[in-house]
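Q: Can I see a sequence and its folded structure?
A: Here is a first one.
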Amino acid sequence: MPFVLYLLALAVFAQGTSEFMLSGLLSDIAADMEVSVPAAGALTSAFAVGMIVGAPLLAALGLRMPRRRALLGFLAAFLLAHAVGALTTSFGVLLATRVVGALANAGFLAVALTTATALVPPDAKGRATSVLLGGTTLACVAGVPGGALLGQLWGWRTAFWAVALITLPALVAVARAVPADTCAAGDVPAEAPTPARLRARTELRALRAPRLLVTLLLGALVNGATFCAFTYLEPLATRVTGIDDAWIPALLALFGLGSSVGVALGGRLADSRPVPLLAGGTVALLAGWVVFALTAGNPVAVVVCVFVQGALSFAVGSTLISQAMYAATQAPTLAGGFATAAFNLGAALGPWAGGRAIAGGLGHRSPLWVGALLVTLALATAGTAWVTGRRRGSADGRKETSPAT
């Protein structure tokens, strides 16, 4: 894999830390801002909403901008949003900074996905995606627990400052390593607007492919389940399982280790055996959420489930992202944007649904059941798409073999 992919993964590490770290800081933020835990959970949904809106729009903008300029601009906006978030005393302003940071994250990730898959052979998109998403799993292993630890020692604001500081070396790395003379769409000069507009129209038409649309929907449902459970992991562990606050960073790191294993597994199998991985992994994911919900009061079971569900969630999720890129070879840039948007649609709806379940009096265990429901919907969607595809294939076969009239 080209070394530049690992530099892009450094930036993804900072962004992944920001996106996931609130799972270890919710109670502190809620107390400091004088809001409820479900209301604080809206900060995760706000970030996801920014990703949903920003990913396709900023991916389209990135078609007309040099890669390096686009990536640097998005990273600078991301850094400033976290500095403001660390300073504000208003929950409304903090909510707004999450949206702005997410917009910047969305634009960066859309262009970075295009850059990563363009730098490798056509049959290595899965491995390139896994390297890039390795920044996210590293964030889960080190960044998120580190943010939780900083929050316990010096307050949640220090975690926001830490994300801003981590972004600085990523800015330098991108400035040095990414070529400045090509657009995100490919080797098209930045000063030629007409080809970029034409490519945007071509890519939009390519996004109508049924296989791509189903893949994006599956990604939204699976990621919704992941974020629904992970966002409320800290209150679940402390209030249901009885784990002491001091162990929360270690529990978050365990989830990160599981996610790292999952992305590595997805990177190995996504290019060669995606269907068995997706089918078996999704069924196992559903069973895992059910077991997690039933055994959430047992500390040993929770430790095991946190690791296993992290691995399964990211193995299935990263494979779906790579399959989205395979399904849209004629729309590499916008496919990356729409894949980002779809996965963050799940990241917005998941915490919202989990928060509604808690607010409705169903307890802190309820997000796990909501996650199981979302994965069930994903399996039902995949099954329906498979049956429909088989019927359509059979009908087309009959038409081809029928005598001409």
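Q: Show me another, different protein.
A: A second, unrelated one:
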Amino acid sequence: METPEIVLDADQRQAAERLDAIAARVGKRWRFHVGQHGSRGLYLYGGPGRGKTMLMNRFFESVRTTRKRRYHFHAFFARLNAGIHEYGSIDASAAALLGDAELICFDEFHVHDSGDARLVARLLDTLFARHITLVVTSNYPPHDLLPNPYMHPLFVPTIDRILEHLDVVSVNGPTDYRTLGGRHTGFAAGHYVVGACPATGAVDLPVAHRRLRARSIENGVITVDFAELCGIPVSAADFLELTAELHTWVVCDVPPLGTVPPDWVMRFVNLVDVLYDADFELSVFAEVPLAELGGEVRRVPDLYRTLSRLGELREPANLEAR
């Protein structure tokens, strides 16, 4: 049976046309001399659920070269930092990750932290110096990266470099496609339940030189309380490490996020990002409906993306709080 044609909105069509042009060029660059703009890439930005990742995945699959790499930004930074310890420098770590790539795709490109900003600046300098074509998706236009008013001026030269090497296209149509439902596999196979988790026992799991107490771990399925998981200093890289063995996640007792510290919320954001990119099933047992979960969204960067993603989970009427 033929795959049904995807109907794109106006923003998506414009982005798809730009991506098709890049796909036609990448892999053929060896045939002619390339100047500085020969590797010009694309920066797609817009709200969650607007089809940016879909467009980038479609593009990536269409590029006829083996010299291409696609990374979720969390995963890339985790590997970059691990490589810095292994190889002794960011340049050596980046070189190992990039290999002979002529195309790099980053999903969910963002910069919120000044330490990350320095790494991003060095990484982009390496990419542009090697004339690697770069395609990124982001929830933020370039000028909104590193929004801290005290730190932002230091990142402006890097933003200028991005604008010099990448065309910027908004993909911000009126529809959040995640809210339309229809997908019930992978991440979206999970549920969002207002109520309590079934009672289970307790098991300790080592993570980030600490002990995480889960309700249960069995056959790749972990059931864990929100406070246990997000109340300890763990990073996106730690969650990535856990997903090597754990493919199904059940998070219990999730409170209204406006009632807990911002760093707890940021860890929840990171967890959902990691599971969504891996397309691993997530179920959430919360104290309030999803519409009430976010609270003060502006307290934590990217929380609105998390809420959009949780909107893909089913809310079964027959699993009410007991």
